Amino acid sequence: MRRNTIQCVILLALLFSCSQLWAQQPPVESGPFRSPDLVELIKLDPTLKLDIRYAGKNNFLGRPVYKEARAFLQRPAAEALVRVNQRVRAQGYGLLIHDGYRPWYVTKIFWDVTPPEKKIFVADPAKGSRHNRGCAVDLSLFDLKTGRAVQMPGEYDEMTERSHINYACATEAAKQLRDLLRSAMEAEGFVVYEPEWWHYDYKDWKEYPILNVKFSEIGKK
Question: What's the CA gap between 94 and 141, in Å, rounded?
């Protein structure tokens, strides 16, 4: 009964947030900032594999919040990610992308439905997310031979201690893969968000503004 109640609360919050899509706007920031140049990742490197969880039901909300399964990053971050992909491919793996640029209104949805004790796993919309700036990516690895996602110490978007980058109570194989990903990402200017092994921020994130542009509008101006 409790699970059904929680899901109903999340659904109502989602419906309300989407209906109020542009009623609330991102926080006002002082610049100057670089001009946004969001690049669709698979157009830059078709060998990247997408598993955009927020375009479906396989996420902590249990509901889609994206209408399209697409992933974008600011161009320097996207180009760095391509280099990371080349690094891990040399070791038999490919990058599995779960999320990139995230419109601000989605961050607001996440914050509103997450209980206080779990808010370390979501960004405060009053400050904005590095995803909103197009400089954060959620990702894992997949095996080039099988095409299957590798086993990490915890699941993507799992709100437990297993998600921490230093979680020690995992198999040696899982820890080695987590460390392989971290090493490759750090070599190209990304920094892990320690509570989430899958979340990496690009070094230049402060130079870009918070954005609230839907995927369908990117590149039209």
Answer: 6
